[in-house]
Structures are given as structure tokens and as C-alpha cells.
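TA notes. Do not distribute before section.
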Amino acid sequence: MAAAIEITGFLMGLAGWMLTGSTLANNYWKISTVYGSVITSSRLYENLWKSCAQDSTGVFNCRMFETMLGLSSYIQACRALMIIAIILGAFATLMALLGLKCTSIGSMEEKVKGKVALSGGIVFILAGLCAIVPLSWYAYNITMEFYNPTYGGTKYELGSALYIGWAGSALLILGGALLCCSCKRNAETRSYKYSSAQSGQRIYTKTESAQSKAYV
């Protein structure tokens, strides 16, 4: 049972890491809204790296953001946090894979493997938190501009990349939690068995001592 939970947590973390990584390549972080707009023949959409425009025929043109220093501070922070989340997810995947019971690499002891898997679960959770913060921050800025009546620029709606990223972040956190719970349960089980064996040995020693005294 514990091994099944461990594998499930690893697969959820791996899927969450892949979904989180795919959000950076997704162009649809925000899409221009057609609400209250007379011209609907073209749409604008952006991600953290570029801005694109698409007309009614499906032809689109994209322009990379020319300068990093000229961008808003929250976009720069979102870039950094997303990259950190992907790097942490890669390390967590490697550590969890090495710590699984079903994997055998070298002469690594079970106790060491459990600690490695536990560390992988913790890093999975950190990666999920590092991803969910920029996604929510980006969505917050979109909604604030959308509902601000004095904002004169183009208003946008939430794009599909944000929903994919939220799903990936949730999988990272849940997968890491399952790994941590599984490793903790294994540690408690081993400790309980060891204590029981010791108590049995002590009882046997006392009984054997009493019998030897009676015999003498």
C-alpha cells in the first residue's frame, strides 16, 4: 500500500512538473477581451516573453519583448519564479526516482532511499508553491486591469496557460504530499517493528534467567 502511494505521488509530481514547464511555451497567458469592443476581427495575446496579434484569417505575428528592464516588475518576478519552479521540479523528480522502493541503484540502503524520497516530496511542494505564486499574481493583474474603469489600455482575460499552470501546481503539491506521507508511514512502521522485536527479546531474556535460577 505504501509503495503504491509512493509511486502515485511520484507520477503526480512528474505530471505536474511537465504541465508547469509547458506553460512557459504556451502563448496564451492572457487574451484580449471582446467584451465591450466593436472591433472583433483581431485578437491580441501575450505570455511572459512575447506579444502576438492574430486576425480573422488565422494569420498571426509575434514580437519578443525587446528589453527586460523596461518590463513591469511583476513580469520579471513571474519569469524568475517559473524558472525556479521548473528547476526545483527537475531536482525533485530525480530525487524521488532514486528514492522509490521499486528502483535499485547501487547499494543504497532503504533508510537512505526513504530520506531521499522524502526530500524529493518536499522539493515537489516547493516547486508547486513557486509556480502557483506567479500564476496567481499574473491573473490578479489581469483582473485588476479588466475591472478598472480608468484603465485606458487593452483589457485582457485569463488565458489557457494559467489554468494549465494551476493544474500543474496542484499536482506538484499533491504529489509531494503523498511522497512525504508515504515515507513517514514507512519510517513509523520500521520503528514499531524494531521496538516490538526488542521488547520480545527482553521478555525472553528475563524468562530464560528465571528458568536458569529455578534449575540451580
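Switch to the second chain here.
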Amino acid sequence: MDWGNVTAEDLINALREVDWSSPPRPLNEFFSRFTLPRSSSKWNSRLKCNLYYYRTNYFILIVFILGIGFIRKPLAIVATSLTALSIAFLNDSFAATFSEKVTKIVRQFSPRLAAKTRPPHTPIIRGRPSAKKMIYICGQPRWVFVFILSAGSFILWFISCGLLTILWAFLIGLLATVLHASFRTPNFKARLNTFREEFRAVWRNYSDL
């Protein structure tokens, strides 16, 4: 697959749809084989390929840098956790798995309350879910939880007086991610057909709708 033909929107949609539970790549693989891209097109393809292949590593890296920036501020650490959770909820797989596990726990204590956490019926069009698929968490639209967590994290950032620090930490995390994705040579696993087909399968779900 030619990663140069993958747009930024396609990549973002694939990252949102892909299974969140994949473990991070080993550190000895993550920090090895750095080379300069030979051209802008090679850099563009490498950047997209690495962002998708090392997605879990980059997420952990950004959260780690944010945590280091506020290691002496407990409220800021809580804010970092809420921010990371709100971002994780944007992934369909994580949101669905989180909702399922919470519903199971609630069902053990209150079956009547658990019934209220079920998502509403999803309409079916021509044998498949509607193109405007809505993700629910505990019976509520996903955006409700994202908004609440984002608002709570912002309040904690403001109380801890760490808005400027979080901005710098987040920018450093993004810069480290872009630099690594730009210079990390895609390894053999990233070029395998099975890895390409994984992205194609996710990408095809959007192109077919």
C-alpha cells in the first residue's frame, strides 16, 4: 500500500477505528534504525506509516511527558489522566470496551440500573449499520463523556496553575512524536501485507459507507 495516497483524514479515521488494546511495540524496536528520509514523499509516507504502526507507543510517550511535567503537582497529574481518558474515548474500540466493562460491573450490583445503560437501537440500512454511527458509553452518547472529562481536566489545569506548563509539555510530546515518526525507518513488520491489510480493512469501512 502506498502511504503517500493516504490522506490525513483517512489516517485519523483509521486511528479512531482500530483496536485500542494492541500492546506497544518493544523499546528495542521503537528506539532503533533511524535514517534520514530521501525525499519529501518518502518522509510523508514514513510519517503516516509510523504514526499508525507505533500509535500505542506515541500515546504512552505523550502521556509520560505530560506526567513528568507535573510530577510535583498532584492535581495536574489527575488532570493529565482525565485528558488522556477523554482522548482515549475518541477511539471506537476503547469506548465500546469501556462501556461494556462498566455495564457488567453495574449489572452485578443493580440490574435495573444496568438496563438504563444500554445504548438505543441502531437503525440498519441495507443490512448494515447507518453511516452516521453513534458510539454510546453507558447508554449516553460518547461526546457527553468526552465533554465532561475535558471540562473537568481543564478546571484542574486552571486550579493547578499549569496551563502554560501543559502547553509546553504537550508541544514537546508532539514534537518528539513527529521527530521519531520522521526518522524511524519502517521495519520489516510495518511492510508486511498483514499490517497493510489491517489498515486497508479499517480504511475500507469508511470508503464503503
